[in-house]
Amino acid sequence: MDLVALATICDLVPLNSINRSFVKQGLNILNYDIKNKGIVTLINQSKINQKISEYHLGFILGPRINAGGRMGESYLGFNLLSCENIHAATQYSSIITSKNQERQKIQNKIINSLTTLIEESDAINFFYDPSWHIGVIGIIAGRLMRGNKKPSFVMTNSNDLIVGSGRSTGGLNIGNLMIEAVEKKIIIKGGGHSKACGFTLEKDSIKEFKNFLFTKFQGFYPEKNNFYEMNLDISVINENLLNDLSLMSPFGQLNPEPVFKSENLKINILNIFKEKHIKCKLFDNLGNSLIGIFFDIDVIKFKEYISKKDTFNCFYKVKRDTYSSNVIAHIEDIH
After folding, report:
1. What global pTM score does this model have?
2. Banded pLDDT at 107 (limits 50, 70, 90)
3. At how many degrees (to 10) do helices 62-70 and 86-114 cross?
4. What does the pLDDT look like over 32-90, one tens digit per residue?
5. Domain limits of the chain?
């Protein structure tokens, strides 16, 4: 059941009905009766020293296990999860962690190279480079989409063809668009769902495919308003609130984690990690404060933005910090 929970979260399976029960029971095993030596060693390698949640499965353990496949060595994940020898599992865990770091370096290099090429006037992000590693194009598309909230399509070579991944915030169903492109013989094959897709096409079809997508998204404006459950005073963000929220977990597809809004907060930057994550202090005019973290953000643009105003409305999820175990905010957006 522990592996079922891991797969359900990482594959974004809807957490309705029986699936939510599967994940809940799998998390119980991971926390109180874990026997899988591969997962044990990966938890230790990841320096997780708190109760395992769906967050750890989806954002810490899952990406590491997938890293082997993304870097062309998919057997590493299988060997790790099926290993019965703790010493061998430790070796596999170390190799997988190294592959994940290699994957991160590749994707960060690509993202940095694209920063100056993004056209703000374009309806979508559309990029192709034959030198890019096939294992990271989906991640790149997701990063671009989160960066400017535009549908993003990223492609590279695979033998004599071009393969690509797309990510979107929703609205137009990009999975259905891929099926339509196949029917119109623009691409060879493709599919997906409203927020993610994959596709394959001939090299001489790139321009036609690009025109097809630009036409579909021309005049389409994704929802700009931030959805949130309720307004919160940051003075009530504490252990009690986190414990109450845990009663609704595990969170995932069709059971989204609540987003909260706090108004008129000041922001001070505390630390910057890996040139893309920002740890900051949020505080109100009564002296209440909260530690918040932005992930995968343009640091320079963020600094410029917060220098123009004194206070901000912040949208965030309440979390337990992976390393300190303190209650913190994972910030989604500010205005």
Report:
1. 0.77
2. confident
3. 80
4. 999 999 999 999 999 888 899 999 999 999 999 999 888 888 899 999 999 999 999 99
5. 2-107, 118-217, 230-334
Please identify which residue in the block is written with the tokens 């929802």.
223
Amino acid at 322: T
Supply the angle between the helices 62-70 and 75-82 in degrees, to the nearest 10: 140
Is CATH 1.10.287.80 correct for 2-107?
A: no
Report yes or no: 77 and 69 within 8 Å, Cβ to Cβ.
Answer: yes
**Residue 288 to residues 111, 123, 320, Cα–Cα distance (Å):** 36, 41, 18
Residue 110: CB partners within 8 Å, gap ≥ 6?
Answer: 129, 132, 136, 140
Would you identify the CATH topology of the domain 230-334?
Answer: OB fold (Dihydrolipoamide Acetyltransferase, E2P) (2.40.50)
- HSE-CB at 266 with a 13 A cutoff on CA atoms is 10
List 272's β-bridge partners, or say none. 278
Residue 275: HSE in the Cβ half-sphere, 13 Å Cα cutoff: 6
Residue 223 has which token pair?
């929802």
Q: pLDDT per residue over 115-136, tens digit each? A: 767 777 688 999 999 999 888 8
| Fold for the domain defined by 118-217 | Diaminopimelate Epimerase; Chain A, domain 1 (3.10.310)
Is pLDDT above 80 for 332? yes
